[in-house]
Amino acid sequence: MRVTAVLGWLAALALAAGLVLALLVAPRELTQGNVQRIMYLHLPAIFVAYLAFVVAFAASVAYLWKRAAVADWLAYASVEVGVLFTGINIVSGAIWGKPTWGTWWTWDARLTSVAVMFVIYVGYLLVRQATDDPERGARFAAVIAIFAPANIPLVHFSVYWWRTLHQPASLLRPGSSSMPASLWLIVLFNTLAFALLYAYFASKRVAILRAEGAAVR
């Protein structure tokens, strides 16, 4: 519990500092203007969603191998947080898209692949609730969590594999970043802040699931 509390305080401080950096320190982008600042929320949200889904993959493998309840709890918590951050990414992208593209949504390859990823992981959560036997639900969900990350490269590289309205990746792109250091350093700082928030949420959720498991016994 002490570690969770520390994570909570670190996440709160990092998020507050990241907000100041994004709104007050980062220079105004010449082409897009202030609407570009939503990138400091949009990119960290999807990066940490990827992280959460990769953790869920590893934890699900461990659960099917060892049948360790804590691994299942970590996978469950990670998917919940990953779905939350993917939702934030989709909503923030729509807010950015309206003034930039003139529409809230388009069935662009990047947007469609993100939406598919979101639906897959929502399906993971539904599977866990749809079975009467919690252990069987955990096994079915673990299989989904193991195969679902195959969609992550599709999301990331969709802007290179197909003609899309969405701009190419600003970070994690083949070659080098197209973003000046004054911008991408703030993106990385906010990604760290979101990672701390993920760790805090996951730690709290695992503790709740542990207590629920103890109560059932």
How does this model look, in words?
There is one protein chain. The chain is mainly alpha-helical and 217 residues long. It has one domain (2-216): Four Helix Bundle (Hemerythrin (Met), subunit A), CATH 1.20.120. Helices cover 77% and strands 0% of the residues. It has 7 helices and no strands. It has helices spanning 2-25, 39-66, 69-101, 109-130, 134-147, 151-161, 181-216. Helix 2 (39-66) packs antiparallel against helix 3 and helix 2 (39-66) runs parallel beside helix 7. The longest helix has 36 residues, at 181-216. The radius of gyration is 18 Å and the shape is globular.
Which key features would you list for this structure?
217 residues, mainly alpha, 7 helices, Four Helix Bundle (Hemerythrin (Met), subunit A)
Please, how many helices? 7
- Which fold does the CATH topology refer to? Four Helix Bundle (Hemerythrin (Met), subunit A)
**pLDDT average, as an integer?**
88
Range of strand content: under 5%
Q: Give the helix proportion (percent range).
A: over 70%
* Helix-strand makeup class: mainly alpha
Unreliable residue runs: none
CATH domain class: Mainly Alpha
Number of strands: 0
Euclidean distance between termini CA atoms = 22 Å
Number of domains: 1
